[in-house]
Structures are given as C-alpha cells and as structure tokens.
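> tool_call: predict_assembly(chains=three)
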Amino acid sequence: MEKLHLHYPAGAPAAQAVLVGVVASGDLEVLIAPAAAGSCHIVIHSAADGSAARWRAQLDRLFADGQAAAMQMEINDFGATPGVVSLRLAQALEELSA
Amino acid sequence: MSHQQDIARLLQGRSFIELSARERAHSLLDAGSCRELAGPFERLYSPWLSAQGIVTQADDGVVICKGLLDGQPAVIAAIEGSFQGGSLGEVGGAKLASALELAAADNRQGIPTRGVILFETGGVRLQEANLGLAAIAEIHAAIADLTRYQPVIGIIAGTVGCFGGMSIAAGLCSYLIVTREARLGLNGPQVIEQEAGVAEYDSRNRPFIWSLTGGEQRQACALADALLEDDSTLIRQQLLQFMARGLPEQPRHRRSRHYLERLLAMDSAAQADADSARQLFHSGEKP
Amino acid sequence: MSQPTISQRGRDWFHALCGSTPLQKGLPPSLLVADGELAGQPARYVAVVADPHNPFVRARHGEVGLLEGWALAAAIDAAVHADQQETDKRAIVAIIDVPSQAYGRREEAYGIHQALAAAAAAYASARLAGHPVIGLIVGKAMSGAFLAHGYQANRLLALDDAGVMVHAMGKQAAARITLRSVDELETLAASIAPMAYDIASYASLGLLWQLLKVNQPDQPTPADVQRVRSALADALHDIQADPQRGLQQRLHGEHRQATRKVRELLQGQWAENAG
C-alpha cells in the first residue's frame, strides 16, 4: 500500500463536505472536508504500489495553481485507473461547488 | 444527496441494486428525514485492514441512517457490498449491532423505532475474523431484542447476496424482501465446493446456485416474504406495508417442531434440488 | 476436500457434568440434552455431538446442520416455555465442541441458515427471558456452528488448551479464500489478534469471561470436573447478580477499542435532534 501526502496553496475554505465513490475493485473513494483558508492537504492511500509519481502529476494538474478551495482531501484508492481517478475527482469538485 | 434528488429518484422508479448502500438508505427513508450516524467524516477506518496493508473505507462499509418511514421512527443499517465483499469487521459490525441496540432501547422508553437491514454481505471479514464473528453474534442478539417490540425488516437486493453469519441475521428478521438477483445461504458456493467437492456443489454453475439459493426460490420456500422487481419505489412500498403489518404471528425461526418433523420424514439420502426444497417447505402446510 | 476428525470432548464433558441424569427423548442423536443441576439450581445441559448415522451425510462429524439447528431451537424453546411462570428460570449450559456448520447441497437447499437462526434466536430469547445462559467451550467453536450453539450466552468460559479454538473459518479454508498460504496466514495471525487461532489470543479480545486450566481436557479427571463445575457456578452467580441481560460484558477487551469508540459515537449522535 502506498501512502502519500500532498500540499497545495488554496483559496477560501470549501463550503461543504463531499464524499464520492467507493473502495471497490478499480474504484476509489474521495472525501473532502473544509480546511483553513489557503491550505489544501491531500492524503492518498493507494493499493497500487509505486503509483506516487502518477498521483503527484495528476493532482498537480488540478491543484498546483492554488485556485481550489481550502480543503482536507482524502483519497482511498483500490486500484482505479487514471481515467476513473479523473472522473471521481471531477465529480467530487463538481459536488463541492454545487 | 439533496432531498430534491431523493424525490426525483422515487418518481423515476429507479433500480435499487445500482444504488450504493448510502443511496439505498436515503431512497427508503421519508424525504428529508435521513440523518447518517457515525458517518464517513468520522473516519472510523478499520484498524485491522490498515495493519495488513489493505486500503480502508471511511465508513468501513456500513451506513447507519436514522429517519422516518411513513412518519414512524426508524433506523436503516445498509451494508456496502462493493467494499470488501460487504464483509463485516469490527467497526462495521459494531455500528450495526449498536444501531439495533439503540433502537431496542428507544422502544423501552416508548419511542417505537423500527429496524431495517440492507444485506449485501459475505459475512465475517476474514481479516478481522474473530472480531467480525463476535460482532455478528451481537447483531443477532440485537435483532432478537428489537423484534420483541418492532418488526425488523431485511432487504436482500443483490448482487452480492447474504451469506455466512449474516444469513443467520436474515433468518432472525421479521420479514425479508428479496429480488431475483438476491441470493441467501449460509455458506458461500466456493467454500462448500472446497469442503465437500465439486460433485456436491459446483460453485461455477450459476443456474444451479440460483436454483437453490436465489431470491425466487427462497420466496417460493417461504424463507423470504416478498419477491420484487429491482425497483426502489416498489421496494419502499413493500417495506412500508411490512412495517404497518407489525410483528408476524409466528416468525420463521419459531417453527422448530414443524421443520424438524418435516426434515426427519423426508428422504435425506436423495440429493436436493429446487423441487425437493419446495416440497419440504410446503409439506404439512394448511391448504 | 477435508475429512474432519471426530472429537469426543463435547460428549465426554457433557456426561462428566451431567452424570447419570437421563437424556431428553425425541431429539436427534446428535443432540444431547439433560436437565441436571448447577450450584443446587436446575440447569439444562446441551451438547451437539457427532452422530455417524446422521441422516444428513454432511453432518456426521459433529457439525451443526439442519437437524441440529432446529433441534437446538426446540430444546431451548421448551425450557423457556416450561419455566414461563417461574421467577427463577433454569440455567442453560451449552457445552461447545463444534468443528463447523454443515457444508452441503441439502443444507443450503433446505435452509440451514434458517435452522441456525432458530437456534441463535432460541438462546437469545432464553437469555432475554431471564435464563442464565452459559457457554462452555471444551473444543472447537467454529463460525456458524458457534453462532448457533453458544455465542448468545451471557457468559463464555473456555478450557485453556491447544485443542480449544474459536474462529470464523478453519486455517486451510481461510488461506484459500484470502489467497494466502497457511504459513503466511500464521505469520499474519501472530500480529493480528482477531485472526489468531490460539485461545490466548482469543481471550485478549475480551469475549471470554474465564479461561480454565484443567489437567486432562480430553478425559477430564474428577478434579477437572470439580474445577469446571465451580467455574460454571461462579458464572451462574455472576449472571444472577447482573441486572443486564445483554452481551455488554464482552465489550471491554484490550483489542476492542474500535468497538467502544464506534458505540460511544453512535450513542452520542443517536438522540441529537430527536423527535
């Protein structure tokens, strides 16, 4: 199991908590909880060993610009493909701004 | 999930099986009444799975929702079949047992809380073996306690089915609702094949497995009370009907003398099939 | 396929504790039931034992099968019914040595889950009705068999012996199902208490009321029987002094911290915004 912590700059605190997905084969669960302004902290537990670089690249694309809401994000990944990861993250961020 | 979405789903008559455990609980409770307890943001992860390097889920695969059913207080415990096969470990098991115990305690204080269990489970989570088994014994105890006051209704929709110690929990429920996708049995097909051989039980023969343990067969044998299409609205309607009916006059598990006689009278040397099972359960019934 | 060996322990301890008390009639030979006494009070002793002529072939090694489940229910329900008007309900002592539930086609087809549910329900109802229910584990207490026969007891006692085992699944089967070798499983079990197969690890979960050392678990000596009888009497008095009839007494083990945390949280949130 791979465990990874990522930190990004962020804007104002997220407005609500969000949960999407499930820790099922080929899928993942994403939890978002509001955090103090300016901070986006992401914890990833992944069943895919050696996936750290892939996670970093994928999350950098979404959060490196510091425009996202301040949040504590938790990802529990049971071997999701990059496509499923993108889909779940998009779904989570969409629900966050809903 | 918003209440508007709840209502929209009910109006559409959507598949129940396709819903997650959380969505199932929301779809059954009266719109706007659902409140999840010990939810995912409490981060009650299984301490035993992570110790074994297995990725955990924030709700440990059990969702407890309190709310109203037709205006009456109720608690729904929903098992998420896609996380670890719906297996019960320490955390999920404690949630389920505790929720039912609290419902029974409510009744002792004059609050008529009902219980609903959405089964989608292979039984004990082997990575937490003895703590899963202990929790299941506590779930049995809680159902036995709560059914002194209120019906406990089990729903097995599929596709995981209901096995192991949790099939015993299903056998303790006042009413059981199943679909054709549901299976209900004590032992999983693979385990029986390993223990008894492929001639006894061919775990890869799906028609055979369903003919013995599928929802349709279980309902035909009166081991389940209602066989429904996979439709959230129909399932909710049936649930409310059973709630309104109150406690059954004689629960299945109270008919020991009857079943013992039938089993002793039957030809146990002959191998079983769907027909012999239906004969067993209907023999000696009043016409 | 596995060929289980037949254990005599359940039978031996049943007879050791009941002496010459006559067996209840009208039950399958795989179920031993006798009304004896415990600490001068009436007690019903119950054991599931191997019947090599069991009409259900998959239940000939002491497994809890269709007949055993329903017959347990009938025997326990009968005691509850008989004592309905009594203030002092007779104790029920389950002597536990059950290698597994029965695995077979007939069993699944004829609803073994319902038979086992009947037994579990009968024990739970007896406990709730005020019968002191004691489980004495003298051999194996495996999975569904244990759930049906003994796990609903107010108090659980076990012999402290290598032949005593409580588990959800036998080692070989568990290894196959979890895609591990038996060696891997054993290594894992050494650090994960709920997965371990030894009775000391099980005791660390807090589910046992007492672990009892005896000299000859297989052929109990008079001193062994005396030791167990006195522990059963202690358990009886402990139950009778306890106003609670649930299983709360099992929640205090060092390895059940998560259980307690979940229960506290749920209880705290239960009544919020009630009404």
